[in-house]
């Protein structure tokens, strides 16, 4: 399944609470549109969204469950991960940093239990090279640059962290997915050139409010 994602675009279909599109059916329709446009996979958040997308889209799905918005909040515990897989995700994305996890388990213990109890693959959302190395050592199947700029180890930049992509590719034997602040096709292409196994794009495709704000600001200028 991982090989089917090589060199392709994975579309992250997520909406923020309180927005008009924050509804499983809306996210399912966006995922179906992404599939029709040539996406090789879908990334989705929340059990209801994951479940409906699993039923309506015939693409591998990376599922996650956000709990809160600070610290370790991307599928923060083993039980959250088990629920994500039960909802239909073939890959479960978890916080892949070296920070303490809410349930007290280590990253290695969490990944091993996911593998043993579900057979699903694990994508470790990392924030630095050290995170990526630790995630590989802990048994992750995929490492993503999702949290670059959102922990204390690397500053947030305007655009994808291609430097981190290249660093991870140079040190890891696992597939490295470029994710985070990829806003244009040229940036997605640059991520592949930097060695990314696949590219994950969310906001620039699936978040109309943000896309509209970009155009509004451009018109104002």
Strand order of the largest sheet: 1-2-3-4-5-6-7-8
The helical percent reads 40-55%
Strand content: 15-25%
Q: Provide the gyration radius in Å.
A: 16 Å
C-alpha geometry: globular
Order of secondary-structure elements: EHEHEHEHEHEHEHEHH
How many β-strands, per DSSP?
8
Mean pLDDT: 97
Low-confidence stretches: none
Helix/strand-derived category reads alpha/beta
- Whole-Å distance between the termini? 45 Å
Q: What is the count of helical runs?
A: 9
Largest sheet: 8 strands, parallel, barrel
Describe the structure.
An 8-stranded parallel barrel has the order 1-2-3-4-5-6-7-8, surrounded by 7 helices. By secondary structure, the chain is an alpha/beta fold. The N and C termini lie far apart (45 Å). It is globular and about 50 Å long. The chain has helices at 24-36, 47-56, 78-87, 107-118, 129-138, 162-171, 185-193, 203-206, 208-220; strands at residues 9-13, 41-45, 61-64, 91-95, 121-125, 142-144, 176-179, 198-201. Helix 1 packs across helix 2 and helix 3 (78-87) runs parallel beside helix 4.
């Amino acid at each position: 399944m991982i090989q089917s994602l090589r060199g392709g675009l994975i579309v992250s279909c997520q909406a923020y609470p309180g927005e008009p599109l924050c509804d499983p059916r809306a996210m399912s329709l966006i995922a179906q549109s992404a599939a029709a446009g040539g996406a090789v996979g879908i990334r989705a958040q929340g059990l209801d969204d994951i479940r409906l997308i699993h039923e309506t889209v015939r693409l591998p799905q990376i599922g996650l469950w956000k709990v809160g918005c600070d610290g370790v909040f991307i599928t923060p515990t083993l039980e959250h991960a088990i629920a994500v897989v039960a909802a239909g995700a073939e890959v479960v994305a978890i916080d892949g940093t070296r920070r303490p996890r809410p349930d007290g388990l280590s990253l290695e213990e969490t990944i091993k239990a996911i593998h043993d109890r579900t057979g699903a693959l694990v994508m470790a959302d990392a924030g630095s090279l050290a995170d990526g190395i630790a995630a590989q050592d802990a048994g992750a199947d995929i490492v993503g640059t999702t949290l670059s700029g959102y922990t204390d180890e690397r500053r947030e930049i305007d655009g994808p962290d291609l430097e981190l992509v290249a660093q991870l590719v140079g040190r890891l034997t696992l597939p490295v997915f470029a994710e985070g602040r990829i806003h244009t096709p040229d940036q997605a292409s640059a991520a592949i050139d930097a060695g990314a196994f696949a590219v994950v794009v969310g906001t620039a495709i699936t978040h109309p409010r943000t896309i509209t704000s970009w155009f509004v600001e451009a018109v104002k200028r």
